[in-house]
Predict the 3D structure of the following.
Amino acid sequence: MLVGTAAASAFSGWRFLGALVVALAVQVGVNYANDYFDGVGGVDTEARIGPRRAVASGLVSPAQMRSAMLLAFGVAALIGLALAAVAGWWLVAVGAACFLAAVGYSGGSRPYASSGLGEVFVFVFFGLVATVGSAFVQDGRISWLAVVAAVPVGMLAVAILVANNLRDIETDARAGKRTLAVRLGDRGTRIFFLVFVLGPFVFVPVVAAISGSLWPLIALLAIALAPVPARAAWGGAKGRALIPVLAGTARLQISFGLLLAAGLLLA
């Protein structure tokens, strides 16, 4: 599955940092875009249970949030161009797709988050594209190891979104936002959440087998953080009681990602 240049002969620190900054800048830009579009679109109201949104609460103006969004995407684009210059210009098309997906999540006449497709795009762009793209920038090739490792990463990213949408089922439904959680209903969403919180650990032995090393198995240690959000979600927590579920899932994703990366590096 070779694509682009030949595999890099050694670890490149600046490529690693560049990919990290791009990923963070895109994440920030997505959050700003969601805040902006939901604020001006009337989706965010005083009835929202989660943390206050900047535009909807009046903390910043829509114009300021739009500028912040464009700045974040601009940073990602500039560094992304530098990475594309050394890794392959086809990455420019990938970057453009990321920006379109970020804006289309909650912007435009038919935002896909309101059509129940948010989880699909999060899995693709924050799982497959982010993980495989980072590996390609470093190695100059697409490998099965990167693709398989991207699956659990994407699943945990989806779990965070599901926890967020589970909390907002009632307010999203009233605003006409037909997220996957609204479509599945309360119980269906809780089952879906459990699958995507616990499912990633099934892929860890597969990653270890492909890498030919036992080191990636250290990612299994992160399962110690799964029971807290899993029990709260399955136990019927609602409203503000789901905010710790969101935070706990985020901690799980970060810990899992760091441990898996360390395991692959040691392998």
